[in-house]
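Hi R.,

Here's the chain you asked about this morning:
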Amino acid sequence: MYLAHRDEELDQILTGKKFMMGNSGTGSGEGSIGQNMDSQEQLDGQAFQHFTVGFFFAYAAEMGDQQTKDKLFAYAERNYNPVWQNGEYFYPRNDDFSVDKQGNVHGVDTWAGSVLIPLARLDRGGGLRRLYTEPWGDAHYKQPYVSDVDTATVGVSQAFFDAKKNALVVSLLPGPIVAKQVSFVVQQLDRGRIYSVIKDGKQVGELRRGITSKDASATWRDDGTALISTSISVPHTFVLVAK
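And the predicted structure, written out as tokens:
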């Protein structure tokens, strides 16, 4: 079904035809039903049209169609005015769905710009399907994980637990608000184990219950969690490995 309508849908998006349907030819001559908007009903219809554009982004990503996905994202980067704000990358709402002389549309529906298109960026193919066919079991929810991250000052670019190596990997990026020091909490570590704390490939300390590292960067807390602190002027990667 996807391949049957993919090319037509892609053409309608990239040429602006999707927003010319039903146009009577009035307006500025740029061929847009977005010209001279005179009703909330018309705006709602256009926003829904762009919602379906966002859905097509997500559809192409879920199907693993990288070529179509690349074309769509190149179009979005040119026309949807993406912004970084408070650690989030998204396409802000724009109610101007007119088609310019080059056939581009700059309008963005909230659902498309903040949910569906970012979802498509994350989905490498079959991601939604695997949520249903390969659900996480109890063992996954017992693994160590990261919490208490201040996303205004630090971003987490990756965080995963390697069960075979008994290692938690956490990569951090500076956030939109500058901070000299940031921290995160590690939940569900084995309280009976000792953990090497490795920062950017070098061991900087150990986590032992009841003992704080020499530089106070890694500390067991009374509630059984571990607190990791670091400077964040540049990206860092931490690995906590059980001995």
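The helical segments are 2-15, 40-62, 66-79, 110-122, 127-133, 138-141.

Let me know if you need anything else.
M.
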